[in-house]
């Protein structure tokens, strides 16, 4: 019997394929119920998690919108003026109330905006509040509130002219821009009923429910109203393990098992927790089991009848094709296979030939698409800012400063305008050396005004290279790195030197500082990251692994990658540093590339 099978590939394959088909089908019939349960449960969890993420996105938008509006009000000059005056200005008071009302009018989730001055001026608000529970909370959490730039309160009640409301407030101190003393307190109150509206309209399973939990693990929306402001461990004592940002758990509440899905809002430390009764997806298992059993029986009969019939005329062409393909190198161009028949195997070979051609074209198309995607991302980022509006606004500020004879502000605004104009210049990647140096000088001038008497910077650029072409936005990130990581961490005044030298075959640039420098361990770490970028540039899977590593200085790595992309391996950054003395960064640009047109 063994020799009889050994002499025929068709017999061996027939037996093996029959076993390969029959055994899995019979096994599938045994475990189909478990499979159905798992698939149905996974789909229910996936659908529930998608719903939670949608609600999370809505709530995160609301939170970000409120935080952005609070920053806008803190920096608003009329607010600063009103809080800084000792005498009340009724016109300014009315104007600010109108501003607050305009901010909150179209946003149903804002219950009230209040600004409480520290001086004797009247408070500003959008809703008349006769009684508020915020003041006791501010006293209760005084340590946390005063030590943080912003603070989200627990859920509390306010009594307004429209009735009793439950709200959650964002509280920020307002400080004077010049003296940094506290001028007052700003609070944005979110209407709890509107937040709960997001949960009830999420399309969650009707027999389940969703609750919103704050950073202190207290329920602030969703579920039974009597649960509000109770600790989750008190309402669901059997629920444990919600420590991650998102995940899945199980809990037995009373006599009813629930699948628990949760997703966090890291911005404020809240969590959305959804409960799905387990019996909902278990009801579908009976139908799935029946369909699976019928499918297995039909597939088993068809497999046994067709395997023997088709295997005879499929074996020989497939063996030839297998021999042709076994030594194929997937990294090289895929060769074509000669088509000798017009049946299914011939069509398979013909499809293989078409596929090889399609793969070759797709490789080229993927490279083009990736390049276009990067370009589109850059254009989309630049399109977020209207350059003409920005330039005109900065010109107006420059003119006003000159009219007020404030020369320093005028010069700083002018430098900023030139800095932005160069950065957003129609997406151009190259510029002449003189433009790159001017851009770096504008940045240094702005920083010198922001941090007076902290550093001095000097530029030594060979006049013969000022009109040579180079990749733009290389010097400014290196100067910024020297300033932030070297000079500002030094107690005494530091110096930054920028050198540019035109040599026979290349242009050499050096950015050197007298900052704190780096120890050998940190220097080895940065050298390792630069070497890793040099080795793995352009390989998607390895680049993904690289992004998981901690990057010491994103600015240095970004400049290093751009140099490698545009000028090759010899153009990367060279970093030298001595602890307590300073850091020196050098890079080379090939001269023949620097002499091409912009």
UniProtKB/TrEMBL annotation:
Membrane topology: Multi-pass membrane protein
Coiled-coil ranges per UniProt: none
Record-annotated membrane-spanning stretches: 287-311
Alphabetized InterPro entries for the sequence: Bact_2-comp_sensor_kinase, HAMP_dom, HATPase_C_sf, HATPase_dom, Sig_transdc_His_kin_internal
Signal sequence extent: none
Organism: Paenibacillus plantarum
Keywords: Cell membrane, Kinase, Membrane, Phosphoprotein, Transferase, Transmembrane, Transmembrane helix
Presence of keyword Cell membrane: yes
Compartments, record wording: Cell membrane
Alphabetized Pfam families for the sequence: HATPase_c (PF02518), His_kinase (PF06580)
HAMP domain mapped to chain residues: 312-364
Protein name, entry field: HAMP domain-containing protein
